[in-house]
Known about the structure:
Blueprint: H1 2-24, H2 28-33, H3 40-67, H4 71-99, H5 106-112, H6 120-152, H7 156-202, H8 208-215, H9 222-227, H10 231-238, H11 248-256, H12 263-295, H13 305-313, H14 316-352, H15 356-361, H16 364-386, H17 393-417, H18 423-442, H19 459-476, H20 482-500
Amino acid sequence: MSYVSLAMYFIVMLAIGLFAYRKSTDDMSGYILGGRQVSPQVTALSAGASDMSGWMLMGLPGAMFVMGFDTMFIALGLLIGALMNYLVVAPRLRVYTQVADDSLTLPEFFSKRFGHANKQVRMVSAAIIVLFFTLYTSAGLVAGGKLFESAFNVQYEWGAVITVAIVVMYTLLGGFLAVSLTDFVQGCIMFVALILVPVVAFTQFESASELTYFAKESIPSMHEALSGLTVMGLISSLAWGLGYFGQPHIIVRFMAIRSVNDVSTARNIGMSWMVVTIIGALATGLVGVGYVQKFGIALNDPETIFIVFSQILFHPLISGFLLAAILAAIMSTISSQLLVSASSLTEDLLSSGKRSEKRAAVGSKQKVTIGRIGVAGVATVALLLALDRSNSVLSLVSNAWAGFGAAFGPLVLFSLYKQDLTHKAALAGIVSGALTVLFWIYAPVLAGGETLSSVLYEIVPGFIVSSIVIWMMSAMDEEPEGKVVAQFERTDKVLAELKQQPAT
């Protein structure tokens, strides 16, 4: 019966892809941003589902299983970061990207923000997107491989292949609209699953006291976790929230929403969804710790605790639905990442590398075709990386999350709010943030060959270095040209006019 549920889920995803193919893929605006006509409801759940990915149902419960209550501070940091993203970035980005010659991608916005269509900042940011998203996508495929291996006894490698094949099919067909609509459905599935699983699992205990009794055999109590928390540990956990400002697959949703007036509605829906699902993921990990101890279950991989609950506690039909929730989480993020990567390859790297007359000769439909080829190409490379089954979902996600947050987060904020930001400062900020993160992750500078990331999460120094570099370079550089100032002032004017309009 679980196979039937999964088959139905796959059919629905492909059907949505076909529907979107007929609706929105005639030009690049439709393929990349859904024609900027996405509803606030779809925007909210699409942003949430593409954000949380497989780590919500596998990585986060697994982290709670291993780390205990310290994981709550990661969740708190994410909630604060997501809220600030809606408040600080979403409204202004929606207006500014349209004012800046209708920018379709984040690298294109970075470039046109300075009055030029093909400056170096566009090429460099596009290259970083492709690099980190390939790594990020591989994390989703690792989760997919683990799911099929644990739940269906399918060889890990084949599980990763099946996962990427389904995602690539509907992303190739329908572009952004297909990704957003499938994300909406997937977000609903995740919401139900993350309420159902921890609640049913908790009923296996007589009381909360019994759960706590068994859980403390493996993880410290909340009091012990709080008393043992270090300053660096707290900063590292809360700093996950900084990453939101620089995640292209999330903030592109703000560019595609049909009106800036819809942002507040999307925020209310998105934050409500996020609060419930994060609590559900943490509860799944906590109940899982107690359940494994009480019933003496051997759990080789903590990141599969949600799968174990799905198989043990539920009827096969419901089990199939819950397993589909994991696939939903995985696929929603992979599809978003593939589309953004393909957009950067097509609109930013390939198009920007050609002379203007050659770019003009390439029609919209041809660009869409190139974009689809890009989706398949990035997916293939990510699949090859994912074949290393020793990778941790949470570890891969944390590295890519930090890379984007440090490289793009400060620049997004400065681009939106600092009028005298210059092109040289933007380029230096991207490079310095990305290089700081890579050094922090890989340079064995501590005793025993340990890296600095073992002391402090790499997004913190990366974000700080990038911000300082941008500020200092802008102060030393020439004033921006008149067109750049005019776009900035036009954005201010549009937002001011919207604030004066009566609420509907």
